[in-house]
Design a protein that fits this description.
mainly alpha, Growth Hormone, Chain: A, 2 domains, 0% strand
């Protein structure tokens, strides 16, 4: 087992040398062990997480008999404790480094899942989901910021666009999102507690792997314990503009859970086809993300990639808006919804790697964790506000196409928010900072 893990991380079998491959196949081969570990970690994170969380609402409502508003409140608390605190997790990464924050987050996630599996009262459920969410607020900014830093180094070494590394990270996460519910569904044949303990087991493996393989001091990272990082960040208009544009993508993606179910219910008379549309989205990312990223990396800079991605997302909403007045039902009625899912997913493939790759150019030296966490927290706040507005929009009794046209306008207008690319020398710098490599953070 030890030999297999080391071979997976180093990319070569015992006693053999790696063989040359065409340029489009070199991303994984040329990665060093650390980014490989982080990419595999993202896969494990999502398997463990999605083995439990998709089934939480049913468990709370049916098994525990909670009222609908209580279930919604608990799920909202979990999202808040995760997305809202990403910026805190990012700050801790800059201050204390990747390894301790990831290990602490894994311990918190294990404790949260075990607690949730044994929780029989409302207060215990709330405490456990808050702990589960906070765990992600610790380890996710740590992993994401270090992957971004490693991707920039990979690009500067001449291997290709940094978005290729970040695309691998996205694919691994999406694969975990696909596999996790399958594992959880099998374990629910036993009970919900079994799914929780399995999720905890996955994170126990991750904890052991990182305790063994994660270096205590990562070359190229410098600690930053100076104050004033948040103040400088909120004055960084270019970064905040990126957050707003990225937030509109997340708001559009959130319509998979808000506007799309209503449209599927109208067209099919039930939400059974919804699971097939979700599977379509996941499989598209797993199989098409890398080719799309390679294509974009050879032809587009980060701003153009996000621009095309946001316009594809807008087109997805426009497809439904154009078909909605016809009020088709059955299979024909589901085709516009499928078109929306495909265009949204294609847009996602362009937007997500580009946004993550852009953050290192906009972050102060030694603050990459803070900026990575803030990207999620600010965008999450936009989704929270925008989802409330979207829910009201769908309930106003407007003409059928109107809500979808409004939703199409949001990502289209967000293109105007994207900052213009500037030279490396113009990036934000900490007070008194000398010329250094483009990205650095804590040890």
């Amino acid at each position: 087992m030890t030999d297999l893990i080391r071979r997976a991380l180093t990319g070569r079998a015992a006693g053999t040398a790696p063989t040359p491959k065409p340029p489009r196949e070199r991303t994984w081969k040329h990665l060093s062990p650390l980014p490989r570990l982080l990419i595999l970690t993202q896969l494990a994170f999502n398997i463990g997480f999605f083995a439990v969380l998709p089934f939480l609402a049913e468990h709370l409502g049916t098994t525990m008999g909670m009222a609908g508003w209580t279930v919604g409140f608990v799920l909202g608390l979990r999202t808040f404790s995760q997305q809202g605190l990403f910026v805190v997790g990012g700050w801790l990464v800059d201050r204390y480094g990747v390894r301790p924050v990831v290990l602490t987050g894994c311990v918190a996630r294990i404790a949260g899942f075990v607690w949730l599996g044994h929780a029989e009262r409302t207060w215990a459920v709330i405490g456990s989901v808050l702990l589960i969410g906070f765990a992600a607020a610790l380890f996710s900014p740590a992993v994401e910021s270090e992957v971004a830093r490693q991707a920039v180094s990979w690009e500067e070494e001449g291997h290709g666009s940094r978005t290729r590394v970040l695309a691998l990270f996205t694919v691994s996460g999406q694969a975990g999102t696909f596999v996790g519910p399958l594992l959880g569904g099998l374990l629910l044949g036993v009970d919900f507690r079994a799914a929780c303990l399995a999720g905890a087991g996955v994170f126990l493996v991750v904890l052991a792997g990182h305790a063994w393989l994660m270096p205590r001091h990562i070359p190229g990272r410098v600690g930053n314990r100076e104050r004033g990082g948040v103040r400088a960040m909120v004055r960084n208009r270019r970064f905040l503009a990126l957050c707003c544009a990225y937030g509109t993508y997340l708001l559009a993606y959130n319509q998979l859970y808000l506007a799309l179910p209503a449209e599927v219910e109208r067209a099919a008379g039930s939400q059974v086809p919804l699971s097939w549309l979700f599977a379509l989205s996941s499989l598209l990312v797993v199989f098409a993300q890398l080719p799309v990223t390679h294509w974009a990396g050879d032809r587009l800079d980060l701003r153009r990639s996000m621009t095309i991605g946001l316009l594809l997302i807008a087109a997805g909403f426009a497809v439904v808006a154009a078909a909605r007045p016809a009020a088709w039902t059955g299979t024909a009625g589901l085709l516009p919804a499928a078109g929306y899912v495909v265009l949204l997913t294609l847009g996602q493939m362009l937007v997500v790697p580009a946004a993550r790759a852009w953050v290192p150019d906009l972050a102060e030296s030694g603050r990459l964790g803070l900026y990575t966490g803030a990207l999620s927290s600010v965008s999450g706040l936009i989704v929270l506000i925008g989802s409330s507005a979207t829910g009201s929009l769908l309930d106003l009794g407007l003409p059928p196409a109107a809500p979808w046209l409004v939703l199409a306008a949001v990502p289209a207008l967000a293109v105007t928010l994207l900052p213009r690319r500037r030279h490396q020398a113009d990036r934000p710098r900490a007070p008194g900072e000398a010329d250094q490599p483009r990205v650095s953070s804590s040890s």
